[in-house]
Amino acid sequence: MLSRSKGQVVHKRALGLASQMKLAYLLTFCIWCYDPTHLPIPAEKPGTMRSSLTLVGTLWAFLSLATAVASSTSYFLPYWLFGSQLGKPVSFSTFRRCNYPVRGEGHSLIMVEECGRYASFSAIPSLAWQMCTVVTGAGCALLLLVALAAVLGCCMEGLISRMMGRCMGAAQFVGGLLISSGCALYPLGWNSPEIMQTCGNVSNQFQLGTCRLGWAYYCAGGAAAAAMLICTWLSCFAGRNPKPVMLAESIMRNTNSYAMELDHCLKP
């Protein structure tokens, strides 16, 4: 009688373990149906480099680097505005200038044909250009920081998660917004005396006169738009989410333990 009741207990316990195994396999199958990439990945050989980014994330990292380099290069080069003075071509950015007049012998003006930045921050021709310098520089620095982290994410596993990628996308949106604000502030400085001398003395805010916008201005604006729209959207799918992987691994470990315990119970 005692042996029979013991056998019934073992049988019930085995049925319970079998049902738990079925549940574990069902959960694993559901995770696979939702996203097969979330199943545990076999251990790789030592020294193998794995990325923390998805395929979309790799594209995002490349575009982030391209927009950051384009905006920063455009910010530094003095080719935002083209005009002429004393018969010589003149170009400006927000804090740099190419070709400028100086007084020579007999108090006559001569053009020095070289590029350089203004001697001090206060020497920048207008308050609008001073604000543009600060705002655009902050936006470029933010885009460069995100691009560096994105490139490192291509080489380091676990550096960028799904949530981290979205936060970096938000930072890119802010950086692009800052650069766009700088581009919007730039025309407010066209009424300064230094710019008017270069633009035929007929320029004003949002009126170029005889001057024209340069390629660097358009490049900065295009890079800012790409960072705000394309890079921010791609960042939502850039990082890998580790939580489902951890769940699947836990299920597989529990399934193995259930199988060992069931085998132990069924042994005579």
UniProtKB/TrEMBL annotation:
It comes from the Eukaryota. The chain crosses the membrane at residues 59-82, 127-155, 167-188, 215-237. It is found in: Membrane. InterPro entries: LHFPL. The keyword Transmembrane helix applies. PANTHER family: LHFPL TETRASPAN SUBFAMILY MEMBER 1 PROTEIN (PTHR12489:SF15), LIPOMA HMGIC FUSION PARTNER-LIKE PROTEIN (PTHR12489). This is LHFPL tetraspan subfamily member 1 protein.
